[in-house]
Amino acid sequence: QAQFVESGGGLVRAGGSLRLSCVGSAITLRSIGWYRQAPGKQREWIATIYLTTAPRYADPVRGRFTISRDNAKNTVYLQMDSLKPEDTAVYYCNLYTAPGPWGQGTQVTVSS
To answer: Residues 6 or more apart from 16 whose CB is under 8 A from it?
Structure first.
């Protein structure tokens, strides 16, 4: 089963930026999604990077977040700009189709 390790979270003020990293053995072979789960809410999908077609984003993050891939490093990134307090959540990466076991995620906290 594919496994992923997320990192790069932290505490940032509104309007700031963070770059999250996702390392995993399946990175170069599959479409990879970023997801997040805010306190008291269900996990939601926010972005996907495909092997050949353009990335897709959920409405709340489109225009502010950018997903990218570095195959040489088996890493997918999520560049997050213009962060808002409502972006506060634990962020996860996983296969976009048929997600496997979830990792521990990385906490992002945006203060107002």
So the answer is: 83, 110
